[in-house]
Amino acid sequence: MAHSEYKIGVVGTGRMGSNIARHLHDEGFSIVAVFDVIEAAARMLAEEIGAEAADRPARVTELADYIITVVTDDNAMRKIFSESDADSLLKSAEGKLFLNCATISPQIHVDVEKLAEKRGAQSLEGCMASSITQARDGTLYLMCGGKRDAFDKAKPILDSMSVALRYVGDAGRAAQVKALVNMVMNINTAALAEGLGLGAALGLDLSMLQEVFAQTGANSRVLETDGEDMENRDHECYFSAAHAAKDSGIALELAKAAGLNLPLAEATKRQFDKMIEIGKGELDKSGVAELTFPGRG
Amino acid sequence: MAHSEYKIGVVGTGRMGSNIARHLHDEGFSIVAVFDVIEAAARMLAEEIGAEAADRPARVTELADYIITVVTDDNAMRKIFSESDADSLLKSAEGKLFLNCATISPQIHVDVEKLAEKRGAQSLEGCMASSITQARDGTLYLMCGGKRDAFDKAKPILDSMSVALRYVGDAGRAAQVKALVNMVMNINTAALAEGLGLGAALGLDLSMLQEVFAQTGANSRVLETDGEDMENRDHECYFSAAHAAKDSGIALELAKAAGLNLPLAEATKRQFDKMIEIGKGELDKSGVAELTFPGRG
After folding, report:
1. Chain B closest CA to A126's CA: distance in Å?
2. What are the two backbone dihedrals, phi and then psi, of residue B159, each rounded to the nearest 5 degrees?
């Protein structure tokens, strides 16, 4: 089947959703409809890629066979898949496939799969462990959970979106893995902010310090991605502090349900919550350094 | 000057000190004396490498021109450099060079340098950001602080001990960098233990999870060094939980003096302190997973 024969809709046209849409459009897929609660966001993207700016989620299902959802959180996800809302994505969903890419609680994926199947549709979770640039370039790290046949059916789209594609199991499993990835990443980020902040307080050369970190047990992926940004206060948003707080929260809910006590994840969530409280939630996660460097914040 | 002309003493023959001694011995340096508060430890090493097991620190200074110290903590360091103790390293120290490799508070290095210089000796801090295998193989990551001429004089020994040698500034600077390295490493270790522990609680395949961590923002050096050990409960000691607690404590003292609040470093110190409390302080730092995996500890 040629790319152009895939009729795709995108619901949630924020940083990730809009760039996934742009990429698939570039790759020759037919993006037929986009929707966002912020109408202007959907309209601008629709004009850019020649799609319809749908006035309600149900219109996306009507026009598209594959519906990619990238909404903000659990509540937004529940809303677009509401059984009681006649304008939800579930209307006339028979034969359609939902690819749900937002970072949300694992249980929501399980629930959405059930709701979709009840209407004769398929549902797949596609958890992205990457950021905006990768969405735009189709180089996402993409973990999928759900029924194997849904995965197989969506594979051409998934392949186009990703550079590393992994089927991890039933619905909800990918979200669990993603929650763990982000929980650990957030802790490592907050840790780096403490290390560099204290280095700054001691008057150490931060370039030297980062070089030493890179060559020793302090090395981490976030050192590569966020170290210089912390030093230079360059907090242009790739992954916001508010999102970090949300994702750590998802992991902590899983821990709570499992009866585990995770003090570092908790301390990290408090740091990112604090950023939201002081009005810095929309800074990049590297902005957590604003809390630990002397004379900032 | 040939290696054999360097008369070297080693004070503190624990895991690191003994292996530094073995390596330098293999490299043809003359290890003339070793000392440890645990007499048997010094005696066994002395026999192995043909050195004298000194009965007091002063005897090491008497026999050696270069004295490498690798003691447990600040107190042990103060004791071997005591001004009031006639058996301390300071006795007849004129012309000698002390190379202090223990992980201790930065201020101690400053104080020891002063004491040494008062006696006409030189002092250099050599902070190791590596572990036992690297000490044995002479492949340490070695950061030095002190006077440049002391560094130059000791360089043939330092070169033999290390694969990466870095002069970072005045006495105490290397210890500051080391404290920061270990503070961040310890946080990342405790973070990984939380991520894998929660993964285990959710019934996720931990090999898969570690693969995903390695390819995403959750990647870190400690994932490489400690991930499998956490999964397999293989906590043979390279860097003990008790040492982790000590080093995080040094960093937190620096933070306190600088007026910084570092909640993750604090939460991490509490975890490693807890390991000591429950009698697991001598496990490797990877043993912190015993606190976070379901059904352990």
Report:
1. 14
2. -60, -40
Q: What is the ipTM of this complex?
A: 0.86
Residues of A in contact with B218 (CB under 8 A): 180-182, 184-185, 188, 221
Residue B235 near residue B283, CB atoms below 8 Å: yes
Question: What CA–CA distance (Å, rounded) separates B286 from B227?
Answer: 8
Residue with token string 């496939």: A97
Amino acid at the residue A222: V
B197 contacts chain A (CB < 8 A): yes
Q: Which helix (H) or strand (E) holds B214?
A: helix B206-214
Alpha carbon distance B252, A186 (integer Å): 21
Instruction: Write out the H or E segment, with its range, that includes residue A136.
Output: helix A132-137
Backbone angles phi, psi at A124, to 5 degrees: -140, 140
The tokens describing A63, both together, are: 């026009």
Structural domains of chain B sorted by starting position, each given as residue range(s) with its CATH number in brackets: 3-170 (3.40.50.720), 176-291 (1.10.1040.10)
Helical segments of A164-240, H only: 173-201, 206-215, 221-232
**Distance from B86 to chain A by nearest Cα, in Å?**
36
Q: In whole angstroms, what separates CA B58 from the centre of its chain?
A: 23
Tell me how close the Cα of A268 comes to any Cα of chain B, in angstroms.
7
Q: Which amino acid is at A283?
A: L
Q: B223 - beta bridge partners?
A: none
Query: How many other CB atoms sit within 10 Å of the CB of residue A139?
Result: 15
Half-sphere exposure of A27 (CA within 13 A, CB side): 25
- How many whole angstroms separate alpha carbon B11 and alpha carbon B18? 9
Q: How many CB atoms lie within 10 A of CB A234?
A: 12
In tens digits, chain B (297 residues) has pLDDT values of 999 999 999 999 999 999 999 999 999 999 999 999 999 999 999 999 999 999 999 999 999 999 999 999 999 999 999 999 999 999 999 999 999 999 889 999 999 999 999 999 999 999 997 789 999 999 999 999 999 999 999 999 999 999 999 999 999 999 999 999 999 999 999 999 999 999 999 999 999 999 999 999 999 999 999 999 999 999 999 899 999 999 999 999 999 999 999 999 999 999 999 999 999 999 999 999 999 999 996
Tokens representing residue B251 in the block: 């960093």
Q: Is A281 helix (H, G, I), strand (E, B) or coil?
A: coil
Give chain B's length: 297
Q: Which helix (H) or strand (E) holds B151?
A: helix B148-161
**CA–CA separation, B68 and B73 (whole Å):** 15
- State the DSSP code for B250: H
Give, as one character, the DSSP assignment of residue B262: -
Residue B13 in tokens: 């023959």
Q: Is B134 an interface residue toward A (CB < 8 Å)?
A: no
Nearest CB partner across the interface for B267, out of A177, A218, A267:
A267
In angstroms, rounded to a whole number, what is the distance separating the alpha carbons of residues B2 and A286? 51
Identify the bridge partners of residue A140 per DSSP, sorted by sequence position.
Answer: A162
The encoded tokens of residue B126 equal: 């050599």
Residue B94 host element (H or E): none
Task: Please report residues of B whose CB lies closer than 8 A to that of A271.
Answer: 263-264
Which position has the token pair 């958890």?
A127
Say if the Cβ atoms of B260 and A129 lie within 8 Å: no
Residue type at position B133:
T
